Amino acid sequence: MTTPESLTSGIWDLCDELIIKILHYCKSNQILRFATTSKRYYGVVLTSITLQLHIELEANGLDIAKGPRTGTTNYSQILDDILRYRDAWLYLRFDQPFKHVLGQETFTWELREGNYVAAFPTPSNPFSDPTLFQVIPLCSLDNPNPVSLQHTFQDFTLDFGQDLVVTVTADPNDTRHFTISLCSISTGLTHPLALISTYSVVTDFAITTAVDDTFAIEVMGDLFLARVKDTQNTCYEVLVWNWKSGAFLLRIGSGPSPRVADFSLLDENYLALLSVEGDLSDLRIISILVYSLRTAICIGMQSDAHFYPSRYPSARPDLIYQFPMLDFGYKISNEVFMRSDPQPGRVFHTASTGLTFPRAHTLSITLTLLPAHFTLSGNSCVNLRIFISVEKLLHYLSEYRDQSNTGIIPWDKWGTLASRWFLSSTRHYYWAYWTSGSRFISVNSWGSVPYDLSVFDFNPQTAMRHPPRDSDVNFSTHPAPQHKEKFESMVREGRGLDIPPEIARCYESTSPQLIIDTVDSTLPTIISTGFSAPVESRLSYRSSSDMVTGYQDVSRSFSHQNQVTQKPFTPHLRLADEFGSDGRRTETLMSPGQAYLESIFSLARPNDPP
């Protein structure tokens, strides 16, 4: 590996242009270290647009999307866009929120690539499953017409770059049977690139549509993944196909013992499965299993009338990351969630180009520990929010890739530095969805105190490259030394997702200020309840919190059917019921956490300097 030390001794006589070309083969941290070796090299790095772009892309985990760009676009414009994107996150430069009144009650919905997509039944049959979906751009007043499918469905996902919508429909006459359909977003008809457009799947267990998360489906490039679980939430199937060729690539079955799971895509080659396995009658064993997507054997084309997953072998994981053991007084709720967003390779657009996240950055995990049925200790629930660095997980793949057996990595080897754990007073599972890249958004309210809107960035490069500065505009440290001590104490105890009410009240009579905190690996979080030994986590992160006071005054209402009564904006609400002037009930799309996340560049004020 090229190092700054080896470079400096051999390239002093080279021209700056050659030095820049050589540095493009280095990592961003190596380039920054090289810049500190002399005044000349500092100037080379500082004044080179391509090196600055290289550093910012890598530090933010971005790639420039493949494909044509506008003829006038240059690297300077792309760099400027990325700096604005970065600073919008660092300093919470959001545009004003909005709300949009839908003309009908939504059955289910998704937030994808800056679009809110609502699904609903036809007006002539309002109590049936949905057959229509409507794509509403979050940063536009456009209100496109709904798209009609030729079938009903209970769940769906979209990939706008491929004009693909994937739907899941449960069979009302057979609780073991469901259908997956591949259609075009623009027409609602069968997708023209899908060799097989409908998959009829029969499981070994009963499923129900009464539970919101019975199905989970995702699309990444030419792959689509489906997870289905049973009515008791103790069995599951995770299935992977090539949606263009119809080839079945991978099956992960739950096996004979009780087990629950959720999955997330790490990059184009690997899938992570959060698995909670039964120990006797209780769910107690937590682990993350990593599976290869590209080395799986292609089983072949599926053209049968029905597809039976249990007829195929369950895949062997490449790696197993173990978690701490539970205390015998606790068990794990069967509602577990793991998310990362956006999916690897999805493109989002700036003013000058398209950008992608080539891999996931942070896994957001939601777990709840419940008192075990045999305990008499009076234990209460423990609600956990866990954030894990994907980069640190992938680090072990090169070490174990060539092994014929599954690699098992104990918690004490990987977990402490790769994760940060938090306690929460609520069991809001939708929190798992409020993650984008390495960032997580949190909204808290303290009654009459202004809203606390916070962005947590779990990318150590971001946290350490941009520490709080006294010269930052609209920046504030905690208003008193004891509040800083209070904050550090809360981080140690796992309560660092919240700003204490006593600190929030300091801003009640003042203008909103940005509170920035950097938590590095020297300040641990220690979870002392629920596990056989205290759980220590040290993943570095940066938090930016804004005391939001004026949303109810500056938000605007608009409707395509009914005028609505304006009411205070509450960012933690996703959907709110409204009643129009004619007394009809409608549903209002509030600008929620993930709407900010997926539309952050468009919502950043364009006139703010980077």
Description of the molecule:
- The longest helix has 16 residues, at 75-90.
- The strands form 9 sheets. Strands 28-29-30-35-32-31 form a 6-stranded mixed β-sheet. A 5-stranded antiparallel β-sheet has the order 11-12-13-14-18, with no helix packed on it. Strands 15-16-17-19-26 form a 5-stranded mixed β-sheet.
- The protein has a domain at 4-76.
- It is globular.
- Helix 1 (4-10) packs across helix 3 (28-35), helix 3 crosses helix 4 and helix 5 packs parallel to helix 6 (75-90).
- The chain is of the alpha+beta class.
Q: How are the SSEs placed, and which strands pair?
A:
Elements: H1 4-10, H2 16-23, H3 28-35, H4 39-47, H5 49-59, E1 63-64, H6 75-90, E2 98-102, E3 108-112, E4 115-120, E5 132-137, E6 147-148, E7 155-159, E8 164-170, E9 177-184, E10 198-202, E11 215-220, E12 223-229, E13 236-242, E14 247-253, E15 259-265, E16 270-279, E17 282-292, E18 300-301, E19 319-322, E20 330-332, E21 337-339, E22 347-349, E23 354-356, E24 362-371, E25 382-389, H7 390-394, H8 397-400, E26 407-409, H9 411-418, E27 419-424, E28 435-436, E29 439-446, E30 449-457, H10 460-465, E31 475-476, H11 481-493, H12 501-504, E32 514-519, E33 525-527, E34 535-537, E35 541-548, H13 551-554, E36 556-559, E37 575-579, E38 585-590, H14 593-598, H15 600-603
Protein name: F-box domain-containing protein
Organism: Rhizoctonia solani
